[in-house]
Amino acid sequence: MELHLFNTLTRTKELFTPLDPPQVGLYTCGPTVYNYAHIGNLRTYIFQDILKRVMTYNGLKVKHVMNITDVGHLTGDRDMGEDKLEKGAEREGKTAWEIAEYYTEAFKKDLKLLNIVEPTIWCKATDTIGEQIGLIRKLEDKGYTYRIGDGIYFDTSKFENYNKLSHQKLEALEEGARVEKNPEKRNATDFALWKFSPPDAKRQMEWPSPWGVGFPGWHIECSAMSMKFLKERLDIHCGGTDHIDVHHTNEIAQSEAATGKPFFRFWLHGAFLIISGGKKMAKSEGNFLTLEASFVKKGLDPLVYRFATFQSQYRKPMEYSPESVEAAKNGLLHLRNQVRTLKEIASSTGDVDEGFKNKFREAVNNDLNMPQALAVVQELLKSDLDPAAKLATVLDYDRVMGLDLDKIEVQQVLPDDIQTLVDARKKAREEKQWDLSDQLRDQIQALGYEVQDGPKGMKVFKP
Ligand SMILES: [Zn+2]
User: For 214, phi and psi rounded to 5 degrees?
Assistant: First the structure.
């Protein structure tokens, strides 16, 4: 079975084969830990999780590295402005190290709630300062760097095809880069490799270097870490579409300039989350929704969000609204009920149906087409295959979907307070006290349980 992925570098869907099968080296740009991730960020991590699970489903062995940016990312993205971590520290009256620690944990908790498989290697930028300095020295030896007042910069005019990832004209990239004026730079697109600490103030995070005390630029960490942990196995590099023009373009330039060899072969980018009104979700837009506030605190299963993202292919913008959340909630509930029913009626353990497995794999192997994959799931569940085979097959699909379908219980033992309400409602129904029955149903549901009245009586379960 062949896996096809859309490669931003070539702007085409290409057949993916790892350099050294069955091993795959995957690098995904991680969070800058100065604030919570918003659900638009998390959409990107869900897409990367699907990519990883699909590769595993195809028998590949994925080594996944994710960085934690805990220094060097400035408010302007282009080496101007304040350090996001130091600014966060000031905002919250903590040290930059405490801020990093706190938001790293919050991020990991979000991933867990979304059933995102942890990377093989987590790596903090502040743990690879030596490697980053080493890489900058290499670039310096090869004549790609120059020094100005606030740091050591990469001269993008010395790197041919600087715009090969973004496919934009160089002038357009320069135009974008001019928003932040640094008159000392030779070219608008040049970027910092090493920034000096301000002469008049001591930073919380700073290190000695051959050029002076300071801290690394944002882009160099990802080049240093991917080379350190993946060595030559540079198969796939992922991020959000907002990484294409600056961050990933600069990673490619500095990495290929330093090694003289091609950097990653495949570049995959996840599209934005769009909220009502057509705006993309971004911290800077002030429409910042966290998983905690939008799901956990509302008693909504975070996996509803995971399921919601499957409704759009990862390269297409995803609309987010109360209606889309409601639709995903109902869709996931329906799927879980279908699986619960199968568990109730399947008399034996079945085998995965190869025909349906191939259909599903064809969908996900087609550039991770999850909407198509969900259509296959429903086709399977509506087919006349025997329940045991259906169940085995849908649980096999869940290795990719990650919706905890294997954890659905047929007979749930209810907590005492819920059981009391259930008993009261049974009695009310026997006595045809319909208003009371409805009230009790609302009470049970308010406590996070689903109530279904069917021919066999009332079913109550945690969805
Ligand atoms: Zn990165």
Answer: 175, -150
Q: How far is the CA of 30 from the centre of ligand 1 (A)?
A: 7
Ion ligand 1: residue ranges with CB closer than 5 A = 29, 222
pTM of structure? 0.88
Cα of 243 vs centre of ligand 1, distance in Å, is 8
How remote is the CA of residue 456 from the centroid of ligand 1, in Å? 55
**CA-to-CA distance for 283 and 294, rounded, in angstroms?**
15
Q: Which residues pair with 215 in a beta bridge?
A: 195
Place of tokens 């994710």: 66
Distance 346 CA to ligand 1 centre (A): 47
Residue with tokens 């969805």, as numbered in its chain? 463
**What pLDDT shows up at residue 411?**
67
Report CA Rg, the chain.
26
Sign, CA torsion 390/395/399/405:
positive
How far is ligand 1, taken at its centre, from the CA of residue 267, in Å?
12
CA of 29 to the centre of ligand 1 (A): 4
Distance 16 CA to ligand 1 centre (A): 22
Q: How far is the CA of 259 from the centre of ligand 1 (A)?
A: 18
Residue 83 has a pLDDT of: 81
Q: How far is the CA of 445 from the centre of ligand 1 (A)?
A: 43
Per the structure block, which two tokens stand in for 208?
Answer: 């000695």
Cα of 45 vs centre of ligand 1, distance in Å, is 13
Residue segments in the chain with a per-residue pLDDT below the cut of 70: 1, 76-80, 179-180, 283-286, 411-412, 455-456
For residue 214 the two structure tokens come to 């300071």
Return the pLDDT at 414: 83
pLDDT digits (tens, 9 = 90+) for 420-430: 899 899 989 98
